[in-house]
Design brief:
The protein is mostly helical. The chain folds into 2 domains: 85 residues; 68 residues, no CATH class. Helices cover 38% and strands 2% of the residues. It has 9 helices and 2 strands; from the N terminus they run αααααααααββ. Strands 1-2 form a two-stranded antiparallel sheet. Helix 3 runs parallel beside helix 5. It starts with a helix and ends in a 21-residue tail after the last strand.
């Protein structure tokens, strides 16, 4: 059975009929439609059958579609969809979802490298200022090339002049409560639940938070 026919008629079928006909499906035409149908099954194993069938016929899911499939397929199937995805995870909501779902999993490093994601935690392989597969050169910080003024220093310097406030000295002042907003620091804490001092680039860009 061709996917277009299944998609048009499945809404009228009993669930048992929809399940039985998954194994007959061919000619998939829309990853978005598969991602729409899979969550309608009560069992993630059934959703996985549909998604795997689609992938066997060449369907590749976008990151947004993969997020839609979360909790509708097995972990094994979701991982397979991620590894064989179409398009890249963006560095905002999509990658944040991936990091929350697979924190500490080597899959994160694989996706970050393939999609050129700059990872927020400095103890992970792609910190601020590095690109996928290209770590910062020895003797330079991860946030800026050697011999050039740091973007943060310029921003804070200009901001201080324009606003009439003293620019941040560019090093840890141990006054974390009043530390201005900067890369990786938001809502009074370091990204992903770490305390502010964790990875603060004002600590010499070495991620220690120390002056």
């Amino acid at each position: 059975m061709k996917w277009a026919e299944y998609y048009d008629r499945c809404w009228q079928w009993a669930e048992s009929t929809r399940i039985n006909r998954i194994s007959t499906l061919t000619d998939f035409t829309s990853s978005a439609e598969v991602a729409e149908i899979a969550p309608t099954f009560c069992d993630e194993k059934i959703g996985s059958r549909l998604v795997k069938r689609a992938m066997q016929h060449g369907v590749r899911f976008t990151p947004s579609e993969i997020i839609e499939l979360d909790r509708s397929v097995t972990d094994e199937t979701l991982r397979e969809a991620i590894l064989n995805r179409r398009g890249r995870f963006n560095a905002e909501e999509e990658y944040e979802w991936l990091e929350s779902a697979y924190y500490g999993d080597p899959l994160l490093e694989t996706v970050a490298k393939e999609d050129g994601i700059r990872r927020e935690d400095d103890d992970l392989p792609f910190g601020p200022g590095t690109t996928a597969g290209q770590p910062a050169e020895a003797g330079t910080t991860a946030a800026q090339p050697a011999g050039s003024p740091g973007l943060l220093s310029l921003l804070f310097g200009l901001g201080g002049q324009n606003a009439g406030n003293a620019a941040h000295p560019g090093r840890c002042t141990r006054d974390c409560a009043n530390c201005p907003a900067h890369y990786g620091y938001r809502y009074g804490r370091w990204y992903y639940g770490h305390h502010h001092a964790y990875g603060c680039e004002f600590g010499g860009n070495d991620g220690s938070g120390r002056p």
